[in-house]
Model the fold of this input.
Amino acid sequence: MGDRSVMWFRRDLRLADNPALMSAIAGADDGVVPLFVVDDRLWKRSGVPRLAYLCDSLRSLRERIGGIVIRHGDPAEEVPEVAQSVGAVSVHIADDFGPYGSDRDARVEEVLAARGLPLVRQGSAYAVPPGSLSTGNRTGYRVYTPFARAWAEHGWPPPVPEPRAVDWLLDVAGADIPPVTLPGGLALPVAGELAARSRWREFLAHGLETYADDRDRPDRDATSRMSVHLKWGEIHPRTMLADVSALRHKGADVYRRELGWREFYADVLRQHPGTVREYLRPEFAGMQYDPPGETFAAWTHGRTGFPIVDAGMRQLRSEGWMHNRVRMVVASFLVKDLHVEWQHGARHFMRWLVDGDVASNQHGWQWTAGCGTDAAPYFRVFNPTTQGKKFDPDGDYVRRHVPELRSVDSRYLHEPWTAPGGLPTGYPERIVDHAAERAEALRRYEEIRR
Done:
């Protein structure tokens, strides 16, 4: 028997542009075991939509490989046991920079080392691994623009080609992919590497050129919807950056910057792992907040009486996804109109988002709440009515997700309380007065500035 290796898949559920897989192949002349571990610590605190998509993606990968070894338990026990049982000489992973992932991998590495096996880290989920860049003061970045400049100057290697043939070792004891039941009314996108490639090709051909002008319009299918494929590593950002960099138009430039935001937030979380739950700017922890009560429940169910907010929250429950512009609007509404701390909203998003990524979600929320990165001021309060009128001018997005408003004239759609005859049957009254709550939010902010 020659050398064997274990390829431990996590957030890299693909064959193309996978340096860890290429490393596993190079380290074994007698085959590679494709392994995925269902980790209870992650499984039990993940939202059902995300778990359902993950399982679909695993099935897709299994079909491409011809099988996959599924283990259920603590990775520090399961990974070494599989490696030892097949006589592997190494275990290969893409590096994980998240707070839990880093600790988990350190534990696995320690157990493997005690058995004389290396944990080989090759590549990551990012074009530039978090922690690679620093300011002139040798500290991490907290402002996007200088980070983006350094990120682009650092650069990244070209994509790694898909291996032509892999000798997969599949005769290893394992479990089946767990069943997950979706909530009623929720439909998820097609999962898997091939679906990711197809969606990306479609966007390159028909969406990227107009992306700069249309990306803030939730009424149009103008975004790439690649976030879920990036979340599970069905495509690597390096592949996307290579395609985008070959184009010379504004849409390509703007899209590249959006990919940079994902890398920026991962870098910030690497520097400040406590910001999964804590404030990046700790003075905001001293602000006066309201406990999540009836108005919070109305927000989660899309029953606030503000059409753009309600459309976004209902889209979240029906698609496991929400348009990015609307994410900012609903987040601002929760923190600054309802005065509820951002962590409650971030937790609700992670429960429902199929693309829920800890770094992007938590720091996107903190940015909107004014307590995170960049110079996003707390006193920037999104007006849900004007946001709706500007970015959904004909009301198509609202009508798609709020059936009670479908027959309302466009002139009144974002202010249905002004329509002749009043609110349509079934649609709620506004739960707050936006102008009054904006003033209250600014008053509370002034208190912590003193």
Remarks:
- The mean pLDDT is 96.
